[in-house]
Write a structure and sequence with these properties.
By secondary structure, the chain is of the alpha/beta class. It has 2 domains: 169 residues, Alpha-Beta Complex (Aspartate Aminotransferase, domain 1), CATH 3.90.1150; 246 residues, Type I PLP-dependent aspartate aminotransferase-like (Major domain) (Aspartate Aminotransferase, domain 2), CATH 3.40.640.10. 38% of the residues lie in helices and 15% in strands. The chain contains 14 helices and 16 strands. The longest helix is centred in the last third of the chain and has 22 residues. 49% of the residues are buried. The structure holds pyridoxal-5'-phosphate (PLP). The site of pyridoxal-5'-phosphate has 15 residues, from helix 4.
Length: 426
Amino acid sequence: MTQRNQQLFERAQKRIPGGVNSPVRAFRSVGGTPPFLVRGKGSRVTDADGAAYIDYVGSWGPLILGHAHPEVVAATREAALGGLSFGAPTESEVEMAELLCRLLPSLDLVRLVNSGTEATMSAIRLARGHTGRDLLIKFEGCYHGHSDSLLVKAGSGLLTFGNPSSGGVPADVARHTLVLGYNDGEAVEQAFAQHGEHIAAVIVEPVAGNMNLVAPQPEFLHGLRAQCTRHGSVLIFDEVMTGFRVGPAGAQGLYGIRPDLTTLGKVIGGGMPLAAFGGQRRIMEKVAPLGPVYQAGTLSGNPLAVAAGLSTLRLIQAPGFFAALERKTQALCAGLNAAAAKHGAAFSAQSIGGMFGLYFRAGCPRHFAEVMQCDKDAFNRFFHAMLDAGHYFAPSPFEAGFVSAAHSDADIAETIAAADRAFSRL
Ligand SMILES: *Cc1c(COP(=O)(O)O)cnc(C)c1O
């Protein structure tokens, strides 16, 4: 059945570490062979053995319009015919910057880059350059890409500095990052009371989506804003996942908070490698060539990526777009909750905009330690039952899921019916 997937995976492992170009794709957490995907259309993907799946990964968030949306593909093709890359200014980059600044009022200036990792890495350098301070606060379970300052786990004590969470990250770099608990406003107050004058920036996923989905307590986010303002630190909202995913103005629009800097990625590239960081003019003016903080990129603002992104961002401006996406995502979660309850499974699900979390525990988690209480074995059984039935969820209990505009009510109903069968056999 999975013959061709299996062959490809074996071949891949001979020449690519773990057979994948990003670790979670390897299915290490759930076991088994990852399907090698050959095409996607709308809500569905097809693998190398010809099996089709309703896709709730959506390339990990970018595909808010589903796979191969005709207008996005046409815009990208049109751009390709005009030249793949120039490394010189183009009009479409200006349009993208103008659109982003219009959609997110906290942005005065914006710089385009190629990946979320680059965006957060550059935003942190900028915050440090702007404040002349080194210390960074991040939150346990939030992921901001894989640059050195961010691959850090909490030290032994509450307010002790971080240790590397990856090989190859110098301890000297990690000790400039303080890792606090998500939704723990008291720890933030303590950290600022103790270290305020040294804190360059606080970086946060305003809705956490890389430890499964964890909803922010609004007062936690407002507390970050207040502390950063009081101590002259830069508040960075990492909206690489939430930007144009939880609502038309990202999480900052949803919770009514104006961060100093914002990082974007995923949806803004519509499936192509495009990301951005931007914010307050007086901070962004410190970026080269205007200021002393160096940042550059050969392919930055690539015309194909910008074309795909612009066309995606324009399509999601349609009236009612986010209301429809939110309603479908809520319907999925409500159906899964009802199916689980019917079979007595310890399970909960919730959504914010077009992203959702599934948890094999009673009640939605509020921070990393509660996410860790989820029953991983139950998740793995559910995951494989759903995959076998043609429903492709993220292959890890610690990832959020995504619904696209291409998912029909019938798709959602089909997935709920399959989940009902999966829960009955869990
Ligand atoms: C995906 C993600 C990143 C990293 O983006 P890449 O394009 O994978 O480098 C950073 N921050 C958040 C919140 C993300 O979800």
